[in-house]
Automatic annotation (TrEMBL):
Amino acid composition bias (Polar residues), ranges on this chain: 82-94
Matching InterPro entries: Homeodomain-like_sf, Myb_dom, RsfA-like, SANT/Myb
Coiled coil: 121-180
Stated name of the protein: RsfA family transcriptional regulator
Coiled coil is among the record's keywords: yes
One Pfam assignment: Myb_DNA-bind_6
Domain annotation Myb-like: ranges: 1-57
Stretches for region Disordered: 68-94
Domain spans labelled HTH myb-type: 1-61
Keywords associated with the record: Coiled coil
């Protein structure tokens, strides 16, 4: 019986996990099946693969998941359409479409899907760049506020020291006045 791995996940393993799960989503399979398949390939448990997917990898592939779900839906729609039209729809040979043209149409559709996917990623990256710029501005504001706070602390400490000094002088003067009052009362 071989032991299952419990070491840290590598970037390549995360990529493999994402690839297999997205393929299963696209093909209409379950995530559990994907976790089992990946687990066998990496010598990890399906539970470990599922945990890694849900805790870390899935968050990085939100747009990929949406695209895979969309492709699965399109495939289901096409398969239902082709089942209902099998007797009515002529084959590619009857339509005078060569297999090469059919392949070219499929490639064009795939390229179109890839372009849409890349555009989504680019939009997300634009949002990410905006967030980075806002983050930098906030860091600068925090730095300015921290400097201002330090100046206020220094001013407070200076005023506190001055207050303590004046308080001591006042107490000494009150003590002198009290002694003078007592002396005047004794001489009367």
């Amino acid at each position: 019986m071989s032991s299952t791995r419990q070491d840290a996940w590598t970037h390549d393993e995360d990529l493999l996990l994402a690839e297999v799960v997205l393929r299963h989503i696209r093909d209409g399979g379950t995530q559990l099946q994907a976790f089992e398949e990946v687990g066998k390939q990496m010598n990890r448990t399906a539970a470990a693969c599922g945990f890694r997917w849900n805790s870390y990898v899935r968050k990085q592939y939100k747009s990929g998941i949406e695209l895979a779900k969309k492709q699965r839906k399109e495939r289901k729609g096409k398969s239902k359409l082709s089942e209902s039209q099998t007797s009515e729809t002529p084959t590619i040979y009857e339509q005078n479409i060569s297999p090469q043209e059919n392949i070219e149409q499929n490639i064009e559709q795939s390229i179109s899907n890839v372009i849409k996917y890349l555009q989504r990623i680019q939009n997300e990256q634009g949002i990410s760049e905006t967030a980075i710029q806002e983050n930098e501005k906030l860091k600068q504001q925090i730095q300015q506020l921290t400097q201002s706070l330090e100046k206020q602390k220094q001013s407070y400490d200076s005023l506190k020291n001055e207050y303590e000094s004046l308080r001591e002088e006042y107490s000494a003067m009150v003590a002198i006045l009290e002694k003078a009052r007592i002396l005047t009362l004794q001489h009367k």
